[in-house]
Every structure is written in structure tokens, then in C-alpha cells.
């Protein structure tokens, strides 16, 4: 029996043909929903606050000041010849983008179970809106970093930004896919194992200390046996942070090999994340 005009539908929801499948056409159709979620996240963050978006700046500012006092003034940790405050501020804004994305994406299923159970839309929109909304936050912090950078240069400090600054969008992309991939894996696992929520909370804090934010990579390389140097670069964030600091501060050393490793690591993790995310979204509502 043929369908009447009123019975015709716009879309037909069908199972994914491949576990790695991402329907980009469908994502484009739901782009307005994505931007609506992004706008909601940003407005919700500073709604009914006195300082509003300034809170985006206060976080890296206070963190960098405390790190400056503890790690520079008390522990006397070097910073490759640039002002320590500027050195940690550069690392902090990139780190906060990574850690905020990772934590929020890892809560995708548990935090959105009510809306997932009521209406259909591509579930991957939720991790994507986290990446985009945190990009707005990063942009504000990045402008603050540039202002501080210009201040130090105007004061005559030996800081030498280079044309490598132009690869900042690539570094951000690498940071985003890394956070999104790891977050999607954790989010899928927390559907069954809620203990991972606690692991993520303190795991991110521990991960910060093995990432060269409050100390330069060159310092670690000086302290450990050369045959263990490769262990430093197994952390995919090491290559990204080293390039970011070298581009804007002219400090430290860089190696394109380690940056390519970070890119390859991020892509593999993202593919694994999409795989487990697609598998989990089929049945998570029956489990959760």
C-alpha cells in the first residue's frame, strides 16, 4: 500500500553500516543543533555571574601565578630563559583546553542519558559541541596570553616568536582529536564501569605532572639517562606543547618527528573512540 503525503517522512534512521562510520551529511543537517548546544554551554557558564567571561581568564591567570610562586620562586625550576609566568601561561592555556575537553567528553553518556532516551540526533554532536564550546574559551585565554606576551616583549625580555605561530590551528586540532578520542573511549566505558568517573578526575591531575607545563622538556632530558628520553615523548602532548612554546616564546627545542607521532597517536585514538562510541550508543540506554 502506498504512503499518503502526510505519512511521508523526511529521514529514515537506520543502523550504521560500519563501526567507524560518521555520517557527515547528517551532521551538517544538524549543525544548527550543534551551535545551539555550543551557545547554551557558553551562556550557562557565566550566566548570573558578576565577572562573566572574565572567569575564562581568571583560571589560567591564578593557576600561573601560583605555579610561578611555587615552582619558580621556591623550587627554582628553570624556564628555558623566558619569564617563568609567561612560560607556564603558554602551557596552561593549551593544557586547560585539553583537560576541559577530555573531562566533558568523558561524561557524554552519563550526563546526557535523559535527552538521549527521548529524542534522536547524531550522538557524536555532544562530544563535538564540547570541542567547539571550549574553543571559544581557549580563544579568550589565547588573546590574554598574547597581551601578556606583548607586554614582556615591550619590557625588553629576550623572547623570540617565530613564524611557527601559524601552525597554532594545527596544534589545536591535534589537541582536540586527542581529547575527543580518549574522552569518547572513557565515556563508553563508564556506561558499565562508573568507577572510571573517579579515575578521570584525579587521572587528569596526575597526567598534568608528566606533561611539560611547569617545567621545560629540556630539563627532564638533562636529568634522565639518554636511553630513556623516548619515554618523555611517548606522552603525545609533549610534542604539541614543545612546538607551541617554541613558536611563541622561542624557548626549548623541537623535533618534527615527535609532532608527527602526536598527530598519528591522536588520529588512532580518535578512530578507536568513534569505534567504541558507535558500539555503545546502540545499547547504552538499556544498560545505564
Automatic annotation (TrEMBL):
| Protein's cellular compartments | Cell inner membrane; Cell membrane
Q: Which family does it belong to?
A: Belongs to the ABC-2 integral membrane protein family.
Q: What is its main location?
A: membrane
Source organism per UniProt: Flavobacterium azooxidireducens
Q: What is this protein called?
A: Transport permease protein
InterPro entries assigned: ABC2_TM, ABC2_TM_bact-type
Record's Pfam families? Answer: ABC2_membrane
Q: How the protein sits in the membrane?
A: Multi-pass membrane protein
Protein keywords: Cell inner membrane, Cell membrane, Membrane, Transmembrane, Transmembrane helix, Transport
Question: PROSITE patterns of this UniProt entry?
Answer: ABC_TM2
Q: Which residues form the ABC transmembrane type-2 domain?
A: 51-280
Q: Does the keyword Ligase apply?
A: no
Record-annotated membrane-spanning stretches: 50-70, 82-98, 130-152, 164-186, 198-221, 258-277
Amino acid at each position: 500500500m502506498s504512503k499518503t503525503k502526510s505519512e511521508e517522512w523526511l529521514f529514515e534512521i537506520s543502523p550504521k553500516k560500519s563501526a567507524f562510520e560518521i555520517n557527515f551529511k547528517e551532521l551538517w543537517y544538524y549543525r544548527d543543533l550543534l551551535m545551539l548546544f555550543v551557545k547554551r554551554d557558553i551562556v550557562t557558564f557565566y550566566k548570573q555571574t558578576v565577572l562573566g567571561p572574565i572567569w575564562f581568564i581568571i583560571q589560567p591567570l591564578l593557576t600561573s601565578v601560583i605555579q610561578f610562586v611555587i615552582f619558580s620562586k621556591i623550587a627554582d625550576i628553570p624556564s628555558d630563559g623566558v619569564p617563568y609566568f609567561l612560560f607556564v601561561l603558554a602551557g596552561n592555556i593549551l593544557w586547560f583546553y585539553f583537560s576541559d575537553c577530555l573531562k566533558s567528553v568523558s561524561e557524554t553518556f552519563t550526563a546526557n542519558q535523559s535527552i538521549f532516551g527521548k529524542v534522536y540526533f547524531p550522538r557524536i554532536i555532544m562530544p563535538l559541541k564540547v570541542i567547539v564550546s571550549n574553543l571559544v574559551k581557549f580563544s579568550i585565554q589565547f588573546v590574554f596570553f598574547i597581551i601578556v606576551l606583548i607586554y614582556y616583549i615591550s619590557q625588553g625580555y629576550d623572547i623570540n616568536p617565530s613564524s611557527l605561530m601559524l601552525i597554532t590551528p594545527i596544534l589545536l586540532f591535534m589537541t582536540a582529536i586527542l581529547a575527543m578520542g580518549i574522552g569518547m573511549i572513557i565515556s563508553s566505558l563508564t556506561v558499565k564501569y562508573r568507577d572510571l568517573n573517579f579515575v578521570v578526575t584525579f587521572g587528569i591531575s596526575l597526567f598534568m605532572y608528566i606533561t611539560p607545563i611547569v617545567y621545560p622538556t629540556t630539563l627532564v632530558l638533562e636529568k634522565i639517562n639518554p636511553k630513556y628520553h623516548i619515554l618523555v615523548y611517548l606522552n603525545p602532548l609533549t610534542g604539541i606543547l614543545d612546538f607551541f612554546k617554541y613558536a611563541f616564546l622561542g624557548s626549548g627545542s623541537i623535533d618534527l618527528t615527535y609532532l608527527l607521532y602526536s598527530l598519528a597517536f591522536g588520529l588512532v585514538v580518535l578512530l578507536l573512540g568513534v569505534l567504541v562510541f558507535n558500539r555503545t550508543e546502540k545499547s547504552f540506554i538499556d544498560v545505564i
